[in-house]
Specification:
GalP_UDPtransf1_His-AS, eleven-stranded antiparallel sheet, four-stranded antiparallel sheet, 2 domains, HIT family, subunit A, 19 strands, 6 helices
Amino acid sequence: MSTAAVRRTPTTLADGRELIYFDDSEPYVSGAATRRLDDPRPLPNRFTPVVGDDGVARPAASPELRRDPLTGDWIPMASHRMNRTFLPPADSNPLAPAKPGAAYSDGEIPAEDYDVVVFENRFPSLLTVPDAGDALAHGDGEELFPVRPANGRCEVICFSSDSTASLASVGPKRMRTIIEAWADRTAALGALPGIEQVFCFENRGKEIGVTLHHPHGQIYAFPYLTPRTQALLAQARAHHERTGGLLGRDILDAELRAGTRIVLESEHWVAYVPFAARWPVEVHLAPRRDVPDLPALTDAERADLATVYLRLLAMLDRFFEGPAGEPITLPYIAGWHQAPVGDGRELSRLHLQVFSVLRAPGKLKYLAGVESGMAAWISDTTPERIAARLQAVAQ
């Protein structure tokens, strides 16, 4: 944790999941008061043996990873997520703080208010079950079908206790607390056994498929390198072998030399539309200094990021306009590409990718045959047009 005034307070929920408050307001940040730490819900421990229809108790089972023999990709089989919470009414929001005076609610946060809170997902696609091990097996007894437990961890990070807020509206002080939480969780999750990479991300908007409108993001600790990260590392390794350079560094320098796609600059950060942007709206935000991940950011870089991040989101929310010229809140996915835990750290460079499926007001970019079937992308615009629009709405 850096020198930012943030207090970290962990506790355990009724079913054994971890929850951590990150406070930046008084009387909590000084320790004069503490958020509620007990969870009154009558939830069984999530690892309690399950009694089947035959009356036999069996150990809790972890989600399963199956490897696609055609691509080599690991696919989590998490059928329990079919029953996860989906667009609940406002009075049943599980991410809202507890209602004052209520004896019991099914919300995830025990406190009646909070600044930022992180907790283990109740419906995770990756979960390390005690004593499950990590042994490789083969489905149907076939060597072609590798199977192993879907060990890992999935966390939820709530950006605000206000269900009507958004990340763009939290303000620099709260944004700084969120950055501290991201860095804290990246370091902690990366230190868990078997974890190969940590991904902090946010989905915003019904067009993206968000099932809870409360302002929140997620943090995944993967037991494997994702296909995207493998592709980035392959390119970075080839570039280094060919030139001796760091690909992320050389891309940033090239974008700065070109200048045409730069949309925001600060002392420590640069935002640009990438040269081969594939989404209708896409921006990368990168530090000026070569940094592998969020925990490696200095105090000054984190403080600057708290302001820059909000400036970028404000620009994106002015990208499209409605019939009367009113700004359209942009649906987006924002994710931090960080160095893996092990091999490849020296080839990696931190950057944020923000992109949207909205190609025009009321019109979405659907992944058609060549994109969904062949991963052969076709852009509906040009990076220079995206950049020009963002430059025009910058304030």
